[in-house]
Amino acid sequence: MNNSYIAVLDSGIGGISVLKDLIKVLPGEKFLYFGDNGNAPYGNKTIDELTVISKRNIDLIKRYPVKCLVLGCNTLSVNIIYSIMRYSGLPTFGVFPPVERVSKNKKTLLLSTLRTAKTFTSSDNLHVLGLKNLVYDIENNVGDLTKINIERNLSLSEGFFINKKNYYDTIILGCTHYVFIKNKISDHFCPKNIISGNEYTVKAVLDFLQNNKSLVNNKGFEVKFIGNFAVFNEHFYISSGQT
Question: Are the C-beta atoms of residues 180 and 203 closer than 8 Å to each other?
């Protein structure tokens, strides 16, 4: 088990933000990354569609020796993590928007996919905004993320929201894709804080490995990409080696 992979699954490049954070904390591990960009974005799909796609992807992942599975995707985590856990039979960790960690006395904006947004309710201090096209936009501009137009994506969103600088105390990035354009989002809204659920997921994986005595302390890490390797190799390739 100690020599097995930590598998990371996402609809494309978003989970690489989680992978990078995992490598920082677990620099001696072997990682398996599955970026299912052929089916991106997940956030516009039904639960049934996500379930069928995920089972097919898990079947591919389980061809390799895997000691745990990380869903580098808020949409999968929020909606079907328990179905994935049952089907895979693997210890499974998700990335969740850390809504409960934000002060209820502060004004917070949760930006997410449409599917994730349906699982949260807006309140006086929390506004939930589902973005239909931003993941698609990021995937299609992976070579030059400066082309992403935040204002245009917000204008195409469903539901009214307050689009003002310095209005929100905290922005929650409820999609791992959005981490790659964190600075653009921050520049647009100018919040005091901008956070994601990545760090909590990484800590949960670390705790699991330590508790199960399956933490590996090799001198260097290893990353194996499956799926559309060319996309990741060209733009986000993480060489195996020392951090």
Answer: no
* Set 50, 73, 95, 128: catalytic member: 73
| Strands 5-10 and 126-131, sheet pairing | unpaired
CA torsion through residues 63, 67, 68, 72, sign: negative
Global pTM reads 0.92
The verdict on whether 175 is a catalytic residue reads yes
Q: What is the arithmetic mean of pLDDT over 210-224? A: 88
Q: Is 68 a catalytic residue?
A: no
**C-alpha 6: how far from chain center:** 15
The active-site residue, picked from 8, 70, 175, 179, is 175
| Cα separation, 137 vs 184, whole angstroms | 14
Residue 166 carries which side chain, given as an amino acid letter?
N
Q: What is the rounded distance in angstroms from the CA atom of residue 72 to the CA atom of residue 22?
A: 11
- Give the largest CA-CA distance in the chain: 51
